[in-house]
Amino acid sequence: MSLALEVARAAKEAAAVLATLLSGVKNAALFGMAAALRRAEATLLEVNAAEVAKARAAGRGAAFLDRLTLTPGRLRRTAEGLEAVAALPDPVGEITDMRRRPNGLLVGRMRVPLGVIGVIYEARPNVTADVAGLCLKAGNAVVLRGGSEALETNGALAALLGEAAAAAGIPKGWLGFVASPDRAAVSEMARLDRYIDCIIPRGGEDLIRAVKAAATVPVLAHEKGLCHTYVDAAADLAMAAEVAFNAKVERPGVCNAMETLLVHEAVASAFLPPFGARLKAAGVEVRGCPRTAALVPGVVPASDADWDTEYLDLILAVRVVASYEEAVAHIRRHGSGLAEAILTADHATAMRFLREVDAGAVFVNASTRFTDGGEFGLGAEMGVSTQKLHARGPVGLAELTCTKFVILGDGQVRQSQR
Amino acid sequence: MSLALEVARAAKEAAAVLATLLSGVKNAALFGMAAALRRAEATLLEVNAAEVAKARAAGRGAAFLDRLTLTPGRLRRTAEGLEAVAALPDPVGEITDMRRRPNGLLVGRMRVPLGVIGVIYEARPNVTADVAGLCLKAGNAVVLRGGSEALETNGALAALLGEAAAAAGIPKGWLGFVASPDRAAVSEMARLDRYIDCIIPRGGEDLIRAVKAAATVPVLAHEKGLCHTYVDAAADLAMAAEVAFNAKVERPGVCNAMETLLVHEAVASAFLPPFGARLKAAGVEVRGCPRTAALVPGVVPASDADWDTEYLDLILAVRVVASYEEAVAHIRRHGSGLAEAILTADHATAMRFLREVDAGAVFVNASTRFTDGGEFGLGAEMGVSTQKLHARGPVGLAELTCTKFVILGDGQVRQSQR
Question: How far apart (Å, rounded) are the C-alpha atoms in residues A409 and B375?
Fold first, then answer.
């Protein structure tokens, strides 16, 4: 039996027990996991340091090494995160929509765990604990497969967390870790639909493509963020400058940062010259359409590819549009479905944008940077889904569950219909 | 450009318009479609009769020919079905969970269409109209690919319904029909994730397996129904006999019929002999475990394969179990996740079963035959999902939509956190 299969089978068995555990047991386990992380700090940092040194020797870049590195501060925040998840309300067991049918049957929906969640991720070790904590709170078993260059760190974390949870009464096998550097383990996991109920790939476009192509397990995809901000003809330009600047500059390397700014032609000559100067002062490279170039000095002419590029950097594509409709059409064509924003003082236009723009999060007069489970009040998140099936936008605890129908009768039988 | 790609692209364009239409427009289209079906009855029956004759000449069996055949009665019920869908409340546009965040942002969820739904089905022509009507009401465009032996009938239906809807103001391209007998069109459709948001395969296990293996589009799978009914030690045996008989006999050829009966040993000798006689009188073949065979004359010994077989026929597998736990373990191992029932007068056991059994519909003291969107009060259904992601159990209008986050601000920007 392959490693992935063995791990997934054990997780499936654990999931049946886990689904019925009361919140108190799960919360105690989360606190136990946090405590274990704090106790094992020195060991974990040591295992990680050796792995970081190996990756550095292999010539990995600074950004990769940064993501791979554990620090006392990161470990502390991870432990605090587990305690914060314990404090969230337990979604499991809620019964809603219970209605009495004409034949007397009571039909309702009960919220239940998804079962076994497979998570395929890259080098960041903190994902191991974040994902394990959220899945546990929602009553799910989890099968983790992290990047091969973080195998030692992730393996140590998974073993530690699994033992701490077991000590608090969580069934063994709940936290499965596929400790194989072999890429084939990824596609194998994605085909274990008898044991895994959902696969969440977290990483670059190539990883997500590969998982989707191989999978028979349902996938909850988190793809790129190509977010637009549209400055409408009726925008408050001072507010627009603050919000658009924040969306680009506050943290450019994340998926909810703005990549393209669209500006209505009626306000372009008032808005773009000062905004362009502010971007320049902040070190942002502007790639613009010809009309943008005419208004902002030093603009690099945008190529077609720019409208489809997630820079994740201090680069911004800027286009002047002739109308609201042109802005929405541009978003429809180039947006990735993560987050889109309009800046306008006109109520009817704002309401139209909310309805007409298709994305996980649609903003009026606020920065796309708020696209985050914590900011939305979900407590924590597994990531941001860009698909439409099951979950769209930040994926919180509720999105790690589903509902089943529960039906209470007193002997009802179905009548034949001809 | 291939046919499937062309159809899917046109559907995607139509979907953007369709998503914003008001209910009145969609309802008028549904009434127009129903009227068109009634007007074209003679033509449709003629096209269908030729196709049925061809299938008969090709040696197709009676059940297949029955599913393929249109009759005046079936067409009438299909038209009535479209009118019933028009009468259902429109799920699109509902805004829920709108909450004010500490920074003043209003964050809520808006219910929106999925976009483009691909449906891959087999020979039943009534599926064409049922699916088109439900998708339209939920604001979705649809790409249909029916079985090759019903190509003429389905094509005529799709053209008729598409034109009737267009006459009522629905954008052209909304109802796409992939009129290709080539099986390759199925896997091609399943990979058009740029244009299709969700694929629903309706048909046999082979079809569903093939779609899941090929798909990069998220799949909403409707697999087999291997439903159990468990007669608990505390069951009211008279009620149990009525409910179990109904679950098996009322319509054995459908997915929510019972395939396996589990009986607690404490009541087996009281329950099984008379129930076995009643089954025999109704022409049901019983395949039983040794303890069943000792209580019921004429039982065929069950093989291991019987516990995993969806008979869809007047055949029932019967097993005597030593405990509630053994019954639940049997269901966990052999159930398909569609519907499971317990018959018991004991409240605590009933509540435990509701929590512990993992299926789209879990029944207490009622027939699994009620697993149906109409019976559950959803108004109508696309089928019954056996997966956990997105929808579990009957798929109604709400399950043909998703939610996006809508966020209303007045200039909020995100503060840097270090």
Answer: 13
